[in-house]
């Protein structure tokens, strides 16, 4: 049975998200008055008992969220999901990539010329830092200079090993000239954390030498909030009255450390205002209490996938890899690991539906257990023991491992599954890239590509155009991936993307497992958590309310 894409749910979630963000109900018109008329007095009747006055509405202005740890400082950075969630209230990006295109914040224009190499970036005229100083092109140039001074390189000023030219047109306009066409440059800029040049006298070395500035609540911010307090286990953010995009209705955000095992208790006790749901039991539990809680869902734009390690101890050949993939029932993985298509869908591609290049007609792997058994026997796969690793810090990865273990047992393959935390998993899974020496310690592993939005191949590009031949794909896949990201014509890029994805899938190294949704439960008085479908949460705080 061919794996099916369940995109309707995601489209419906997006439609609800847009409706929640943009629609308001007009007040009913006051009925027209009619001339008074004289009528006989009605007989007196006993007065009805006075009704008990309704409890006054609670005026709230604080939103409390759980964070997993206290950071060392609050520098602008979007390197990890956990840290990004912490600093979202205080730092804006230039723009973000969404399923519909670019979602603008500090910038209001980013356009590519017909030559495919010249871009014009314009910063909003009213974009300003929390101390009133305008955000300017100098801040972008300072950020690039800081990265060069700190790391000796910068992805903003280098493409394909060649320099990018920055031409300052005026304080708000920057012309960017790439050495070669490179569509991924938009993604690069969308992840650029902007530093305030004026706070460091436009000297990047001051920031390199001393980061104590970002431990002081007086630091300047570009987002909707400033830092009010930094405590041992919490951070308090305060809404800006001069935020260039408007004034948030949530006046105070409290980000407090809550252990992962204690979030549900804290939420049900009212200590935090929302949490993520990753199991069907939790979804059913809170959905059944609609009088107390609201449920929000957005596409995570994430592809979780199964990787066969070309350097693993078993050195699986193509026939053995193909047998493994025939044995995987994708629909069963979804229901066994997630229990509901509201939490995850069965994918058909290495790209996600939130990407412009995604093709819903891409032909995915077919589940055929009898063929898998036959190939497992003829290829010598039957009877083998394979080591399978997964990141235990990631939701539902253990459940996926157990389902796959059961499915592959049906063709005589014994999976020894090993879960580990992120700090142990990544040096092992990316051993070739990390030079950790662990590349021959596992055969199969699961990981995820997140933030798969926009009009490029995004994270799948680095796999197809693989560094150090890390993932076993032929050079043809990499050549096609590079062609996609250097093609200025969108329709041509779509055709090349189809060819690149099909070339990669045909080699039986990467199996698309799940498209995940980011589902949240919130207290009944919280609204708007799906107002901007960008994960990690929350990129647009203006849409969030705590007054029901």
At a glance:
It is built from 16 helices and 19 strands.
The proportion of residues forming helix, as a percent range, comes to 25-40%
Query: Which CATH class of the largest domain is shown?
Result: Alpha Beta
**Coarse structural class:** alpha+beta
Question: What gap, in angstroms, lies between the N and C termini?
Answer: 45 Å
Which fold name fills CATH's third level, the topology of the largest domain?
A: Dipeptide-binding Protein, domain 3
| Structural domain count | 3
Total of helices: 16
Based on CA atoms alone, the radius of gyration comes out at: 27 Å
The tally of strands reads 19
Q: Quick one: CATH superfamily of the largest domain? A: Dipeptide-binding Protein, Domain 3
Task: Determine the strand fraction and express it as a percent band.
Answer: 15-25%
Q: Return the CATH architecture of the largest domain.
A: Roll
Mean pLDDT: 89
Low-confidence stretches: 1-50
Largest sheet: 7 strands, mixed
Q: Which shape, going by the Cα principal axes?
A: globular
Provide a descriptive summary of the structure in words.
It is built from 16 helices and 19 strands. By secondary structure, it is α+β, with helices and mostly antiparallel strands. The chain has 3 domains: 119 residues, D-Maltodextrin-Binding Protein, domain 2, CATH 3.40.190.10; 116 residues, Dipeptide-binding Protein, Domain 1 (Dipeptide-binding Protein, domain 1), CATH 3.90.76.10; 217 residues, Dipeptide-binding Protein, Domain 3 (Dipeptide-binding Protein, domain 3). A hairpin with a 2-residue loop joins strand 6 and strand 7. Helix 9 packs across helix 11 and helix 15 packs antiparallel against helix 16. The radius of gyration is 27 Å and the shape is globular.
């Amino acid at each position: 049975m061919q794996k099916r894409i369940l995109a309707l749910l995601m489209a419906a979630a997006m439609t609800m998200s847009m409706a929640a963000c943009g629609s308001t109900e007009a007040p009913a018109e006051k009925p027209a008055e009619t001339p008074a008329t004289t009528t006989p007095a009605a007989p007196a009747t006993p007065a009805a008992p006075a009704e008990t006055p309704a409890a006054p509405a609670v005026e709230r202005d604080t939103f409390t969220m759980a964070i997993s740890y206290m950071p060392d400082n609050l520098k602008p950075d979007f390197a990890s999901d956990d840290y990004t969630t912490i600093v979202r209230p205080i730092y804006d990006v230039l723009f973000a990539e969404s399923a519909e295109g670019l979602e603008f914040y500090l910038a209001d224009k980013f356009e590519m010329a017909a030559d495919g190499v010249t871009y014009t970036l314009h910063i909003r005229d009213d974009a300003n830092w929390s101390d009133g100083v305008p955000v300017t092109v100098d801040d972008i140039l300072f950020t690039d200079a800081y990265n060069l001074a700190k790391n000796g390189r910068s992805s903003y000023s280098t493409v394909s090993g060649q320099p990018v030219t920055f031409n300052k047109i005026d304080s708000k306009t920057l012309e960017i000239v790439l050495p070669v066409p490179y569509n991924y440059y938009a993604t690069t800029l969308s992840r650029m954390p902007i530093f305030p040049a004026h706070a460091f006298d436009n000297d990047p070395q001051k920031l390199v030498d001393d980061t104590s500035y970002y431990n002081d609540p007086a630091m300047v911010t570009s987002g909707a909030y400033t830092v009010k307090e930094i405590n041992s286990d919490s951070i308090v953010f305060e809404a800006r009255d001069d935020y260039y995009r408007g004034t948030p209705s949530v006046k105070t955000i409290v980000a407090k450390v809550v252990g992962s095992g204690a979030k549900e208790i804290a939420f049900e006790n009212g200590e935090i205002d929302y949490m993520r749901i990753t199991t069907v039991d939790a979804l059913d539990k809170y959905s059944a209490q609609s009088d107390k809680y609201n449920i929000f869902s957005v596409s995570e734009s994430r592809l979780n996938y199964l990787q066969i390690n070309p350097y693993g101890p078993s050195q699986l050949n193509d026939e053995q890899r193909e047998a493994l993939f025939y044995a995987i029932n994708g629909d069963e993985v979804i229901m066994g690991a997630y229990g509901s298509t509201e939490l995850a869908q069965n994918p058909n591609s290495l790209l996600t539906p939130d990407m412009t290049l995604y093709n819903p007609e891409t032909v995915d792997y077919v589940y055929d257990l009898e063929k898998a058994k036959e190939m497992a026997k003829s290829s010598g796969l039957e009877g083998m023991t394979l080591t399978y690793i997964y990141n235990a810090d990631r939701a539902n990865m253990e459940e996926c491992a157990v389902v796959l273990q059961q499915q592959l047992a049906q063709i005589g393959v014994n999976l020894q599954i090993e879960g580990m935390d992120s700090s142990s998993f990544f040096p092992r899974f990316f051993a070739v890239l990390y030079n950790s020496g662990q590349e021959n310690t596992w055969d199969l592993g699961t990981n995820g590509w997140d933030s798969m939005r926009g009009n490029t191949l995004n994270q799948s590009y680095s796999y197809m155009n693989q560094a150090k031949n890390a993932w076993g794909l032929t050079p043809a896949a990499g050549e096609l991936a590079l062609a996609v990201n250097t093609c200025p014509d969108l329709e041509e890029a779509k055709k090349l993307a189809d060819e690149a994805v099909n070339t990669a899938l045909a080699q039986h190294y990467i199996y698309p497992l799940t498209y995940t949704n980011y589902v949240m439960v919130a207290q009944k008085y919280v609204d708007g958590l799906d107002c901007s479908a960008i994960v990690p949460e929350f990129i647009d705080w203006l849409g969030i309310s705590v007054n029901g």
